[in-house]
Amino acid sequence: MITLEQIRQISIASPSKIVMLVIDGLGGLPEPKTGETELETAFTPHLDYLAKNGICGLTDPVSRGITPGSGPGHLALFGYDPLKFTIGRGVLEALGIGFELRENDIAARGNFCAVDDQGLITDRRAGRITTEKCTELCELLGHITLEGVELSVLPVSGHRFLLALRGEGLAAELSDTDPQKTGAAPGMTLAMEPQAKHTAHIANKFVDEAQKILAQHRPANMILLRGFSKLPQIPSMGEIYKLTPAAIARYPMYKGLAKLVGMKIFETDDGIEEELRVLSACYSEHDFFYVHVKETDSAGEDGDFSRKVKVIEQVDLALPQLLNLKPDVIIVTGDHSTPALLKGHSWHPVPVLLYSQWCRTDEVGQFSESACASGGLGRFPAVDIMPLAMANALKLIKFGA
């Protein structure tokens, strides 16, 4: 696999433009009654047009058989090996809401959740409470005091919040308290390295105090913590690819990811049509655009097959706005699969299409899992998408003599 340093040496700036449309949790599994996935069920004439006139395949975000989180999945899409650049969810949430992490701060992603009288989780997302309710609960938790530590509890979106710890001698090598399933009790934070024992004690003290405060706030009567992390050092896309990258994303974590790799963030609170209008407005200023669609993943996690189909169709309906801009390269893919049948992320490879005037078209005529399985790109690591996009944008010079 070519390294980022080697890519940096052969990348060049040019006027050509790349758009990467990431439909979060895109991949699915066949619905038993129809034998078709969400993507295969959806009416997608514009995606099918791109597939027919481009080249398709399947990608593995991390490695075969590995179920990726959104962070690793996106890092791979941006060309960063997720096994080398491990970035905790807490840092991404912090950056996404504009919280200024210091070098030694510890950040964790929090979920408000529901537990029953036996302390077992009944809903990991607390019924997807509103951001307003999350803000109210964060204010309550913000009054918790921990000796020797400055505490910040800030709302992110819906049931999600940020926990940030600031103080001396803190370490991020901590286990999650989220068992990632219902019917289980929240765990304790464990120190994965000896130097993290003090921080684990602090985190568990916070959870204990939070449980007392939230006891009467059903369905958000408990919290789950994961992704303890410190701010990493990572080269920017500008350094590596000579790009002026922009991100159009609505959810904080994805804005955090984009900010981490040096993208300029363009804010929008509406759906894909508004995101593409923002893209049109800033199109002359940048040469790489990351556009993120979240609702497919949310529908998959909720087990709502029909809603996921509808979101895919909404994306397809808006695509003429993108096609009218005539980018030199269009990439459409997902950061991972989220089959509604599994109600969560999965290890299944993700469909991808690449559209440019320089690609060798294949026999694929539909953008779907089964069609992409026979595409000309084959099955390959997602980290190779960026070199392919750069090559088709004529932004890479020859490697070697």
Describe the protein in words:
There is one protein chain. The chain has 401 residues and is an alpha/beta fold. Helix content is 32%, strand content 20%. The strands form two sheets. An eight-stranded mixed β-sheet has the order 9-8-10-1-11-12-2-13, sandwiched between helices. Strands 3, 4, 5, 6 and 7 form a five-stranded antiparallel β-sheet that branches. Helix 11 packs antiparallel against helix 12. The protein is globular and about 60 Å long. The model has no long low-confidence stretch (mean pLDDT 95).
Structural descriptors:
single chain, 401 residues, alpha/beta, Alkaline Phosphatase, subunit A, 2 domains, eight-stranded mixed beta sheet, 14 helices, 13 strands, 32% helix, 20% strand, globular
Q: In short, what is this structure?
A:
The protein has helices at 4-10, 38-41, 45-52, 70-77, 89-96, 131-141, 197-214, 237-241, 252-260, 272-282, 295-301, 305-323, 369-372, 385-392, and strands at 18-23, 55-60, 106-115, 121-123, 149-157, 160-167, 222-229, 245-248, 264-266, 288-293, 329-333, 350-356, 378-381. By secondary structure, it is an alpha/beta fold.
